[in-house]
Amino acid sequence: QVQLVESGGGLVQPGGSLRLSCAASGFAFSSCAMRWYRQAPGKERELVATISSAGGGRNYADSVKGRFTISRDNAKNTMYLQMNSLKPEDTAVYFCNAQFYPRYWGQGTQVTVSS
Asked: What is the SS3 assignment for 66?
């Protein structure tokens, strides 16, 4: 059973930082590219960042480029999203997703950027 569990969200002031984690199980994590998505209230889910199976290839949405860093630890079956210089427009529920299991989603983790 594919499981994805996101954590690390919270309330942070503009300019602050958060580190999200995605714990994966039930599939060959190290063979799978992974993605972070986010969904703000009233908006469609959008792709934030992707990372290749070995971690060498990374891509970012223009809106987060230079501020967010995606990484993974295949020994721990875990992916991360380091978010720096957070802005109010980064407020959203953040989800992780696996390349070969696109129908599986976790519960997400809420990120709120507000003063």
From this structure: coil
